[in-house]
Amino acid sequence: MSNYTRRDLLKTLGAATVAAATPASALWTNMAHAADAKYQVTPEKGAKLRVLRWKRFVQGDEDLWNANTKKFTEKTGIEVRVDNEGWEDVRPKAAVAANVGSGPDIIVGWFDDPHQYPDKLHDLTPLANYLGAKYGGWYDICKRYGTRDNKWIALPLGIVGNLLVYRESHVKAAGFDGVPKDLDGFLKLCKGMKAKGTPAGLALGHAVGDGNDWVHWLLWAHGGKMVDEKGNVVINSPETVAALDYIRELYPTFVPGTLSWQDPHNNAAFLAGQCSMTNNGISIYYAAKNSTDPKLKEMAADIGHAHFPIGPVGKTTEFMQITQAMLFKYSKFPNAAKEYLRFMWEQEQFNPWLEASIGYVSQPLKAYEKNPVWTVDPKHTPFRDVAQGLMDNGHAYKLGAASAGVMADYILIDMMAEAASGQQTSKAAAERAQKRAERYYKI
Amino acid sequence: MSLSRLLENRNFLGFLFMLPAAALLLVFLTYPLGLGTWLGFTDAKIGRAGVWVGLENYIYLFGDQVARLSLFNTVFYTAVATTVKFALGLWLALLLNKNLPFKSFIRAVILLPYIVPTALSALAFWWIYDTQFSIVSWGLVRLGLIDHYIDFLGDPWLARASVIVANIWRGIPFVAICLLAGLQTISPSYYEAAVLDGATPWQMFRYITLPLLTPIIAVVMTFSILFTFTDFQLIYVLTRGGPLNATHLMATLSFQRAIPGGALGEGAALATAMVPFLLAAILFSYFGLQRRAWQQ
Hints:
A: alpha+beta; 3-stranded antiparallel beta sheet; 20 helices; B: 2 domains
């Protein structure tokens, strides 16, 4: 608890007493019921902040983020410099900052970043509890990624939705009314689409976002997992083999070249009409909708978004990118930084920002489901609910260096690609992945 | 000895003047190299200092299928690319050494691929090799030579070939221009004498050009091998090591493991493992090729 400011501590203890529970469990459970959520820290005098975040996918995000930041500076007199970096470059930068102990006060990073260096981060529990209580609570997935040992070590900012994007008319032509909810139906749909000359295509190259998102879903949908609850690698399992057998049937229905696809490839192929179903954020729809080309405008009207089918495990097993803000202990102005985070996550700032992000990012707090961006266009609505059924890449064990390493080394994508292309049998591909993953979970 | 006397001592002065350069080398060359080598013997992770684990990283990498594949890829990539770059570069240099119209203009143009930042030219190749939009596939389909688009970066061997071609395209100018400089230092009188003796062009090349060019070739090839062996940007932009790790080079895999993957120690070990290969390449081209030049 030494990292709390005195005030934080008093507030938390106060809330806990009100809830008549032990302080430890009160940290993020009971606090959510506190009716009059209060949180206050006093920024240090003369504080100046540096924030590093990923470069926007859509201009409105950056504009509103900067406008909100400016508002914060005007209100508090705290100068904030916001730097933007390509989204994949933030991870190494954050890791280096953690390692050398200097850098931006706040870094808005990805996935399990905070779990790789939890002891370098400030405890944000009081702030997260306050926000959770005020805004309808955090989604479970946000707790999974944001907390460690019941302490919030990062503040989830949102989820970059990743759903099936498809051409409604092409799905219809293949004999289906929307994307089926089960794996068998999904395979039949892909076969039908291939037969009609309008194939699907999901990335199997080293595509950090699109590739990882769908292969995790497919593995989990079959009940396979990288590790069990105790951290033993169990990827070489009958469930995994079932998933690999499935992908061997699925892959031939894809448009050629998906083994080489990186993140932007499917967008380009879809917009060019070469691929009629893929997995992606809302960006494909927006590119079509905002295009001046009448053909693309027409395509926009034909685009549908659907959640991934549910496999034998009987529940949603989706996987998407989560982004969260970390406050590093080396920061000279932790209270100012906390105040900045609070300010940015409050509805007066968060709602306009979420709206300006036009569906690229989905809310981490349930109250923001009411944001008009989700209903202004019915094609946005599926992205509203992306946080609900998400699983984390550490499943079923703790997040940490091992889960991050396994994903960064593309072990799952490689395994799927090996099986899909027929380079390895399903069994051999699973064995190879097992061997590679064991290395990461050994330490 | 007083300070003024000391400052008049030539040896001491020489030492003093060398200090800045030595400090620069020490700080920016020796220290990072030493640190990298040391990290390779630890289990350092990002955000956590490592402890000494001896050869564990190397033992693991030796048994790791992806690391072994990357070693094969790197050696294959370097061998094929540098050989072709040398052959084509030499040919180009010989052509440019002839009296051509607009000689200096052409020489400047030849350098273009080398001047364009790799990341940028890699992006161009990214489109050239794209499965859906490849201009090459498009052209061939239009010509009726093939009926479907070529999966340049989706098939392991095709992908290897594709990245090698991109590397060759980029590397030729360096080889050609350096060899051209070497060619120009060869005195024309040798060729005149050879012509009088009735030598064929091949004999002139074999017995005059090649021996006199060898020292330059040694230097150029050393650099060429070093650049190719440690190539990173091209692969990172084009394939990220895919498909199925078929184009992962040791440099790209080292980055993938160390920075996004967080396994600093293992990444460092992988990078350090490149050093013996590089040293061998340097020693080979230096001693193998240069000694012959002295013997002439």
